[in-house]
Amino acid sequence: MKIEIGKESLFWCVVLAVLLLLLCLWGNGDIPFLSVNEARRAVTVREMYEANNWLLPYMNGSLYLAKPPLFYWLTLVPVHLLGEVSEWAMRLPSALFALSCLAGVYVLGSKLGGRWVGIFAAIFLAANAGFSMFARRAEIEMSLTGLCLLSLLSAWPYLFGNGSRRWVLLSYTILGCCLLTKGPVSLLFVSIPILIFALLQSHQRAKTFLSDGLGWLVALLIGGSWYFAVTLQEGWGVWQSILQQDIVDKVSGDGGEPWYAYLAYLAGDFFPFWLVLFIRPRQLWQKIRTVPEFNLLACAALVPLLIFSLFTDKHAKYLLPTYPVIALLLAYHWVRVLTSVQGGRRSILTWLPPLTLICFVGFYAVFERQVFAYRVQALPGIRVATAANPAQTIYSLGPPDMRLVFYAGRSIQELTEDQVRSHASRDAQLFVMAPPPTTLSWLSRCATKHFKPYLKNGKEALLIQLGNSCQSAL
Asked: How far from 237 is each of 184, 228, 230, CA to CA, in Å?
């Protein structure tokens, strides 16, 4: 049953579109990279761009194959158009995929329950700490989320309508792009939920979809092309350490958070909207149990949650591709409850979501830079200080933070304490955390810049000018 609440919904669609554009795009290039992962992507793209090498990603001079290259390729397009690797160019793909997710949940929500379900689904997704953050970050997760949702939406007309096989092939084509974004883990968000749905519902078209040989061939050709090309050039052994780090260690490594950690992540990101589940939860369960479309949405939300909860390594961002379908389920139930209440409760349910979204837009437009100033305050100074000596080699005592590598403008070589002494006479620059180790305390007398704070509250760093004058301080 579709639910409509007055003709004013069209006006709110326009208001929502403006807010979502502001949320995803406003000031996206005004703040330096806020995380190590953002800088990793930017350093890799810069080295691919400078070397004009689209096949082999390098990071700080070392081969970096931990992630497939589709995100890098997507960012290289605006980078080539602009002629530089900038924050805006790096974050543009995430913003565009976020907008595609928001448009997708609006369209599917409108089909499932009417325009207001679509509106609230888009609001629940946007007014979400995890989703909104990755919509504005140069990280892979939002690209994966957008592609997984587009693959599922492409399968939808075939699974639940009279769509032709072209929809099946389109879905598998996008699935191949998912594989090129983050590897086989993409199957957990599209193919495996459809498989579980087909088994639970004995859904014939879902079984036909999953047994489409040409579709799987297309997906594997697209998704495996880069792996095949790299293997031909570098050999099979290049994947051994990656399989150990990205699969074995994450599935069965030591430590890790408890199995229910993802429930806490979801509760935080979807607060306060998930509280509606305490109101007439049987109605939503009945819908999921009896309506195939809702059953598939539930599978797409719960199957990855259950599987990832078994892994040792847990991060909230791993479940980001499930957020659109969770927003759809919450929005449908929210509107059902909204239509059944009156008075103050109706006003709260009506106005709480848009006001929450406005708060998120306000935060990113006005307050984000101030809140995270401690992370970025040193970065412009690093760029200026290193640009003054473009020919000098830059060293770091210990592994360099990738934000340092990016804003220094070139690769940074790691030195041990013993190596610092042997390099002291060289005309070079050295970054070291302050205060230096006791055995290298003499470095403080060679410092030309003092960065405080440096990437974290309470952390400081020194830029040391090495050379003969510094060696004399030994």
From this structure: 19, 13, 11
- C-alpha 444/C-alpha 288 separation (Å) is 65
Burial (Cβ within 10 Å: 0-12, 13-18, ≥19) of residue 154 = buried
Cα gap 270→125, rounded to integer Å: 8
Record the tokens describing residue 447, joined without a space.
């410092």
The one-character DSSP state at 436 is: P
The pLDDT value recorded for residue 245 is: 67
Q: What is the 3-state secondary structure (H, E, C) of 417-435?
A: HHHHHHHCCCCEEEEEEEC
Q: How far apart are CA 451 and CA 377, in angstroms?
A: 8
- Helix/strand/coil percentages in the chain, nearest 5: 70, 5, 25
Residues 6+ positions from 277 with CB-CB distance below 8 Å: 284, 330, 333
Alpha helix stretches (DSSP H) within 33-184: 36-51, 70-82, 87-113, 115-126, 129-135, 140-160, 165-182
At residue 7, φ and ψ (nearest 5 deg) are -75, -10
State the DSSP H helix or E strand holding residue 460, giving kind and residue range, or none if neither.
strand 460-465
Measured between alpha carbons, how far is 241 from 221 in angstroms, rounded to an integer?
A: 24
Of residues 6, 1, 2, the one with CA closest to residue 346: 6
* pLDDT, tens digit, 9 for 90 and up, residues 306-350: 999 988 888 899 999 999 999 999 999 999 999 999 989 999 999
Q: What's the number of CA atoms in the CB half-sphere (13 Å) around residue 445?
A: 12
Joined tokens for residue 207 = 């079984």
**Would you state the pLDDT for residue 312?**
82
**Where do the domains of the chain lie?**
9-30+65-371, 376-471
Which residues make Cβ contacts (< 8 Å) with residue 372, sequence separation at least 6?
Answer: 31, 34
Fill in the DSSP letter of residue 439: G
Task: Tell me how many degrees the CA angle 432-437-440 measures, rounded to the nearest 5.
Answer: 85
Tokens of 290: 């009896």
Q: What are residue 456's DSSP bridge partners?
A: 454
For residues 364 and 358, give the distance between their C-alpha atoms in angstroms, rounded to a whole number: 10
Which parts of the chain sit beneath pLDDT 70?
Answer: 1-9, 245-256, 471-474
CA atoms within 13 A on the CB side of 75: 33
Q: Which residue has tokens 């403008």?
A: 409
Peptide bond into 272 cis (omega under 30): yes
Q: State how far the Cα of 334 lies from the Cα of 340, in Å rounded to an integer.
A: 10
Alpha helices of 270-372 — where are they, by DSSP H? 281-290, 292-309, 323-338, 343-362, 368-371
CA distance 5 to 124: 18
